[in-house]
Amino acid sequence: xRYRHWGIALLLxxxxxxxxxxPAPSRQAELETLLYQDCGSCxxxxxxxxxxxxxxxxxxxxxxxxxxxxxxxxxxxxxAMPPWSELLTRQDAAWLAEQLKKDAPPR
Length: 107
Ligand code: HEC
Description:
By secondary structure, the protein is an all-alpha fold.
């Protein structure tokens, strides 16, 4: 019984960082690169629009973070906007969505 509780406590410790808060700083750096290189290949290298519309905060104001997470993970069916759920976790998408809502997205 004692050992079982330790097991559960250990499990929670391992799982907690994955389900709450921001991605690790190293992952944030990777996501920043992805935002400007991969997303930027369609949305413009400065995110001001290209094949896809601008991703700057003025335009992102129309979406809440949850809606942006959905767009990023699932794409927009019937358009060139692809789903990213194979490459990005929900936490990754949430972090990106929050960056897009900020006045100055990271560069
Ligand atoms: C292959 C090209 C392509 C790539 C890569 C791409 N997008 Fe898109 N995205 C589009 C297109 C095209 C649209 C507009 C779809 C439509 O007509 O509604 C769009 C729409 C969006 C929208 C909704 C914008 C709006 O104002 O309606 C968001 C948010 C978005 N993309 C975020 C991202 C993010 C974040 C990434 C990188 C993780 C990404 N996109 C990568 C092509 C792309």
